[in-house]
Task: inverse folding
């Protein structure tokens, strides 16, 4: 035992009783009082010390005081006043009791000044005096009533003996400070009157008491009750804290957890938040409010990790029967306070043995159930439970719980509405994005789309569009704003890009037309009040696998990244065009020759700004993540997202499109220069048939011969030299292209019965998979695609 252990003193008799009723500790003061040495009584039943040892020691688990007759070692009896300290509900540790006897005169006597004694003991304030040894020398009637103990029995106790609370340990520390410095000190503390069931808040003045020589001989403690002001301040602080801590996100579960966190331990020892389950097929309509009520627990918080484990875990559904506080408060539409000692829960607990055992185990004595209501709709219930705090829920506690819960209910309702809108927007967004990418001989592609984790779903999109001549277009765009309007605008722009791409516009021309469309959309969105705020960025690229050249143009969009085979990733330097929707500014294109197996990466700005960093830092990190992208593209996409995005998800929408380019071997392409002489069409047909035989495509010979004859004849008759014929094929497609320098495009028409011509293009359209015309700077190209699978 330590020399400075306050348990071991010769003034106050102390003993500790273990949970099994045996004596666990025995102080020197107890030996002097009763004559028993520690080794004689420790480990033996405490009841043996009673003068009448036939009955049990009358010390309940809760705090108790009174007079007992104990047996002295010499056979005599000693009447003592006993103070048994409070034991925590459900605890199995020892309880402490003290046998208090009158003090002997010591050298710590206080100055015998009548004025001091009159000021101390006739003061209307609760007053007590401690000597230099921190022994209580006297109290006035007001302090005795506060402590709920007889004034004569308080002499000799330490501050921690009075209540055993941490606040009294702080009082003892401050008393020592006043004794040491001789300066008064003010402090706040809590003391509980035995006659009441709640603690008081006191503002205590600690003043030194000195003798005639100026030596500090004691401390006078004067306490002023400011419980109501203190509780009002605590309630205001909790409301302020709730307004700042609840509703920080638009997430239902997070908001409910914030409500539980704020209220423990300030208002309750255990809080759980449960929401009503919606009717089947009616997502926005909660279940009918009639017992039994099904609730899903979405959040809970306990005082400490080792205090009540919930019968129902977060995410589980519990059904509350009639007479339960949760069901009653939901049906009644107002708060319900239930007290266990009063029997308010008997009907419910008799039907739920698990809850009954839990309440008994942890000493739950008071429950408060508050319905969560917002905008005329009942969302669920918040249940508050007390077991460690001895006070039951008061009317002020109910008002405070309703105030905090009302704030949380609005935030939860906002989160539910936002979640529904977000899910609707996300469904629309995903329906407008391509579900699968087309399989082409020119490239292999992989994509990823991630909506923003916190802000609303935006208007990011991507697309891969097959073009004539086995070329392929790649596009990535980002619409300004979030929500359904941004997703709808994205869908309109993606459709427009596909339409413009179908007529084979050059990238810079396509962006010019798209810019005009965004201007029109902005005017429509603004209406009569002026232009709206519709804007977007876009990057459009066309790759030709025959020439292995890629033409790109961008409108306010981040530049793409190219990863050459075996080389480091680098940005393609493109002219920076203005974002779509500004109007009046031109767009420029850039052309690059790319080797086989080069990888192009297109992305939106949400990928490089997700960690709150600037775009330059994000792009440098992206180059590092893309370096050495030689594996499967799907794995590369996942690796890039994992390295670029924060653990909590993207702060803005992210679209990523990666394409590995594949050039077409020269053996699969043949080109002829055609003289402008109709008589040479027959030899051209013969050369085509020979080439098809060399490619082992004899099944397509008849159709290809007919299509080539018609396209070449039209070019000779209506076009302008030079004329060129090109055949391209892969495993699935044969393409016939005839180019000339005339800009006049042919039109498909139906010939009348007596017309001698006009059926050629109609016949081509019927025999081929698709056909069309694309304009170039030198003229035009008429092309037709034949599906080889249909000709086997």
Result:
């Amino acid at each position: 035992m330590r020399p400075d252990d306050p348990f071991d003193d010769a003034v106050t008799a102390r003993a500790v009783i273990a949970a099994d009723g045996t004596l666990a500790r025995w102080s020197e003061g107890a030996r002097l009082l009763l004559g028993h040495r520690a080794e004689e009584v420790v480990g033996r039943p405490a009841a043996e010390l009673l003068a009448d040892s036939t009955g049990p020691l009358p010390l309940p688990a809760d705090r108790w005081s009174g007079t007992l007759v104990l047996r002295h070692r010499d056979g005599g009896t000693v009447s003592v006043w006993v103070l048994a300290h409070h034991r925590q509900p459900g605890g199995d540790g020892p309880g402490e009791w003290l046998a208090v006897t009158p003090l002997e005169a010591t050298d710590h006597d206080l100055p015998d000044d009548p004025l001091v004694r009159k000021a101390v003991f006739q003061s209307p304030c609760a007053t007590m005096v401690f000597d230099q040894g921190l022994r209580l020398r006297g109290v006035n009637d007001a302090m005795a009533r506060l402590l709920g103990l007889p004034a004569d029995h308080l002499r000799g106790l330490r501050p921690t003996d009075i209540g055993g609370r941490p606040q009294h340990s702080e009082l003892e520390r401050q008393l020592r400070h006043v004794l040491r410095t001789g300066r008064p000190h003010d402090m706040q503390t809590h003391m509980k009157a035995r006659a009441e069931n709640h603690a008081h808040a006191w503002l205590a003045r600690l003043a030194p008491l000195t003798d005639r020589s100026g030596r500090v001989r004691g401390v006078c403690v004067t306490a002023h009750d400011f419980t109501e002001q203190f509780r009002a301040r605590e309630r205001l602080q909790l409301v302020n804290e709730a307004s700042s801590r609840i509703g920080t996100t638009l997430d239902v579960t997070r908001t409910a957890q914030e409500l539980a966190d704020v209220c423990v331990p300030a208002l309750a020892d255990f809080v759980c938040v449960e929401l009503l389950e919606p009717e089947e097929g009616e997502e926005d309509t909660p279940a009918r409010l009639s017992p039994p009520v099904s609730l899903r627990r979405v959040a809970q918080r306990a005082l400490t990790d080792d205090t009540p484990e919930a019968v129902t875990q977060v995410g589980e559904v519990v059904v509350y029967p009639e007479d339960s506080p949760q069901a009653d408060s939901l049906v009644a539409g107002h708060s319900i306070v239930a007290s266990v000692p009063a029997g308010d829960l008997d009907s419910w607990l008799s039907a739920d043995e698990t809850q009954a055992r839990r309440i008994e185990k942890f000493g739950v004595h008071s429950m408060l159930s508050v319905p969560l209501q917002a905008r005329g709709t009942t969302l669920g219930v918040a249940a508050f439970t007390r077991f460690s705090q001895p006070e039951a829920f008061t009317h002020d506690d109910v008002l405070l719980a309703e105030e905090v819960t009302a704030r949380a209910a609005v935030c939860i309702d906002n989160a539910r509405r936002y979640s529904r809108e977000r899910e609707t927007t996300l469904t629309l967004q995903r329906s407008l994005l391509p579900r699968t990418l087309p399989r082409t001989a020119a490239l292999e592609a992989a994509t990823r789309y991630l909506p923003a984790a916190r802000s609303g779903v935006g208007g990011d999109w991507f697309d891969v569009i097959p073009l004539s001549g086995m070329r392929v277009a790649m596009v990535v765009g980002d619409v300004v704003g979030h929500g359904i309007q941004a997703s709808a605008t994205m869908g309109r722009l993606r459709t427009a890009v596909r339409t413009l791409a179908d007529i084979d516009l050059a990238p810079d021309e396509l962006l010019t037309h798209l810019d005009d469309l965004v201007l029109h959309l902005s005017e429509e969105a603004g209406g009569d009040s002026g232009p709206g705020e519709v804007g977007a960025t876009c990057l459009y690229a066309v790759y030709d696998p025959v020439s292995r050249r890629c033409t790109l143009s961008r409108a306010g969009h981040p530049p793409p990244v190219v990863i050459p085979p075996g080389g480091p990733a680098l940005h393609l330097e493109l002219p920076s065009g203005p974002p779509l929707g500004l109007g009046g500014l031109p767009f420029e294109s850039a052309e690059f020759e790319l080797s086989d197996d080069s990888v192009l990466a297109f992305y939106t700005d949400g990928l490089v700004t997700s960690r709150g960093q600037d775009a330059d830092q994000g792009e440098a990190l992206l180059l590092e993540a893309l370096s050495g992208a030689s594996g499967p593209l799907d794995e590369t996409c996942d690796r890039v997202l994992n390295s670029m995005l924060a653990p909590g998800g993207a702060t803005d929408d992210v679209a990523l499109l990666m394409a590995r380019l594949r050039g077409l071997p020269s053996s699969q392409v043949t080109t002829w220069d055609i003289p402008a002489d109709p008589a040479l069409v027959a030899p051209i047909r013969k050369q085509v048939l020979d080439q098809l035989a060399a490619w082992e495509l004899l099944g397509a010979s008849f159709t290809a011969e007919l299509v080539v004859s018609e396209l070449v004849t039209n070019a000779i008759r209506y076009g302008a030299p030079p004329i060129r014929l090109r055949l391209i094929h892969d495993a699935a497609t044969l393409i016939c292209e005839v180019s000339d320098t005339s800009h006049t495009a042919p039109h498909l028409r139906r010939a009348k019965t007596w017309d001698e011509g006009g059926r050629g293009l109609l016949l081509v359209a019927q025999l081929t998979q698709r056909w069309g015309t694309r304009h170039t700077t030198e003229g035009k190209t008429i092309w037709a695609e034949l599906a080889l699978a249909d000709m086997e």
In short: Residues 102-108, 751-757 have pLDDT under 50 and may be disordered.
